[in-house]
Amino acid sequence: MNSLEANIRKTSTKGQLNTIRINGNVPGIIYGGKDQNQKISISKKSLKIFIEKENFLSNIITLNIDGKPQNVLPREVKYHILSDEPDHVDFLRVLPGVKITIEIPVNFINHEKSPGLKRGGVLNIVRRKIELKCPSEKIPGSITIDLEGVDIGESFKISSVKLDPEVTPTIQGRDFVIATLAAPTVMKEPEKPTEAEAAEGEQGAEGTEGATAAADGDKPAATEGEKKDNDEKKPAEKKPAEKK
C-alpha cells in the first residue's frame, strides 16, 4: 500500500491557504465516518508523483498525519485554472465494512495472443471504467480482461468478469457490454494500373474516338477534280429571253 506524509493545518482564510501553496504544499481535507472532517496539507511534489501514477483515484493510500497512519481513498483533485497545478485534494476515510461507490478502470491484456486482432480486427471499448459498489477494504485495483484466443465477433460483458460476492456493479438488471472485437472497417484501395495497362487503355480510347467520328458521318474533303466533275454534271442555267 502506498503512503504519503501529511500535516494537520489550521487555516480559516484564503490568505492562509495561499501561504500554504506558496510554501510548496497543497491543502486537503479528510471526510467520512463518525469523525469530524480533518484539514491537512501535503507536499505538492510528493502529491504530483502519486497523481501521475495509474488509477490514483481508485487506490487506497495511507496518510501519515503527524505520525499517525490513516487509510484514505482519493476522491477529487482540484487544479489551478492557469497553472494546472494541484490546488486542493479530498480524501475519504477507509473504514472496515463501510461500502463505497467507486469507478474502477478496465485493463486489457494479451493483445498479441488474440487471433481476431492478428487478422485485423478492431477492439471497440465501450466502457473504460466500471462503477462498483463495494466494501472499502475490498476495492479491486482494476478489472482485467484477457484477449488470449479471442476472435472477431466476440464480446465481453460484465457477467464474464469475476468479482467478489460483496462487489457489485451499480448498473443492475442488465448484462451490459464492456468491449467487442469487431471486423476491420478499413476499405482496401484499388491497385494502380501498370504503365503497360495505362498505355493500352489510351490506345483503346483513340480507337473509340475514330469509330465515333465515322458513325457521325464525318467525310474527307473533296478533291479539285471531284469538284469539277460535279460542276459539269449540273444542268446549264436558262437565261431569260430578251425583249424586242
Description:
Mean pLDDT is 81; it is low at 208-215. It contains five helices and 13 strands. 21% of the residues lie in helices and 34% in strands. The radius of gyration is 42 Å and the shape is elongated. By secondary structure, the protein is α+β, with helices and mostly antiparallel strands. The strands form three sheets. The chain has a six-stranded mixed barrel. Strands 10-7-9-12 form a four-stranded mixed beta sheet, with no helix packed on it. Strands 8-13-11 form a three-stranded antiparallel beta sheet, with no helix packed on it. The protein has helices spanning 14-22, 44-51, 115-118, 195-215, 224-233, and strands at residues 2-8, 25-31, 38-43, 61-65, 68-79, 86-93, 99-109, 122-125, 129-135, 143-146, 155-157, 168-169, 177-182. The chain has two domains: 2-94, Ribosomal Protein L25, Chain P (Beta Barrel), CATH 2.40.240; 100-182, RNA Polymerase Alpha Subunit, Chain A, domain 2, CATH 2.170.120.20. Strand 4 (61-65) and strand 5 form a beta hairpin.
Keywords:
Ribosomal Protein L25, Chain P; 2 domains; 5 helices; 244 residues; RNA Polymerase Alpha Subunit, Chain A, domain 2; alpha+beta
